[in-house]
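Complex record, four chains
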Amino acid sequence: MARVAATERRASLVQAALTVIARDGVHAATTRAIVAEADMSLASFHYAFTSRDELIREVISFVVDDQHRVSLATLENVPADAETPGSGIRSAVRAALQAYFDLLVEFPEREQAMFELIHYSLRTPELGKLPQVQHGSYRHMAVELLEAGAATLDISWTRPVEEVARVLVALTDGLTLAWLADRDDAAAGHLMDFIADSIAALAVPAKVLHS
Amino acid sequence: MARVAATERRASLVQAALTVIARDGVHAATTRAIVAEADMSLASFHYAFTSRDELIREVISFVVDDQHRVSLATLENVPADAETPGSGIRSAVRAALQAYFDLLVEFPEREQAMFELIHYSLRTPELGKLPQVQHGSYRHMAVELLEAGAATLDISWTRPVEEVARVLVALTDGLTLAWLADRDDAAAGHLMDFIADSIAALAVPAKVLHS
DNA sequence: GTCTATAATGAGATAGAC
DNA sequence: GTCTATCTCATTATAGAC
């Protein structure tokens, strides 16, 4: 096989690991399954990584970074949803949730893998603060979305934006887990309606704070 | 070792498995670890169960049943929180959440194990509809609590109780996952405040519907 | 019914030729 | 740098004595 730089091999293996984890779960992501997915030899694996654990650590780091990238990309679309100040926030939140939900329905394995990676890192002390970091990146993403939405729709949050973000993340996690468990689209829709109402209840027209 | 009925052995092994899963995670719950915890020989394990998978299935079934039992026990305490009709629902919800949260803080491994078991069953097709059942039992528990609360506090839900229950479960799952990830007690408190407000917003005094 | 011993498999990691 | 072959260990499961 062609000679490839170690950094490229590492990237390929991380991608392959993510594919395997999404398809078969974390427990099935053995070194053998991963190298098979990457079409690579077992020895090449241990040339690029000293251990399986080192790979998994890199997978989680990659996922965290990736979420941040996705977050920024999503922001591009927020202004397009702009409507009348104040009242628009409810439908903007609802639309953003629907966009997320559509992705979830299209790639359920991906979100399932995220959960499994969180639980894996919670069970792996050597991973240190990665669970906090991973979860924190979700909240950071939510903060950016909420601030962008507030700026675009000319509203203010009645609670600290970090707090609203935590609510949004918790609700999204709950929505995701519930749908993964029972695949009830209609119920998920009702839940998203509720989330949109509840989040919108934390917004007031920005001018209120200016008076 | 004394001769023990197979059904007792099965029960002991299920308990031991739960202990191991809570302490070290599902992936660490090998037959060896479980029989060590149960102080039993490996052969006894295979006398009681034909396979490890059969045990895990029984563990999940047990957990589902157990949740139902806990749910009924919790109901006993609801009337004690009764206050003035209508306005009391917010503090009743908040108190119930706090009670759950206190349990979570005291036994975090237990809730973590519940998550891991859900994801395990989602990855195990042979387990069939168990994930739905497990998640459904959470919602059932929520329904009973909400109905008992409504009766005691003389309020009605403005949405179908199943829908409110789904919201409550989703929020609780999100609360749990967030706290497991970052152990931020203060943030969890704010989240519970929000949940209580949002759920209470779905309640109206019962007499409104009688007029 | 319970035990010890062992088969059978699959895992992570390494040696050494090329 | 990459390969094949192998080591070592842990796992599930079973056989057969008691």
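Note: Residues 1-50 of chain A form a domain with the Arc Repressor Mutant, subunit A fold (CATH 1.10.10).
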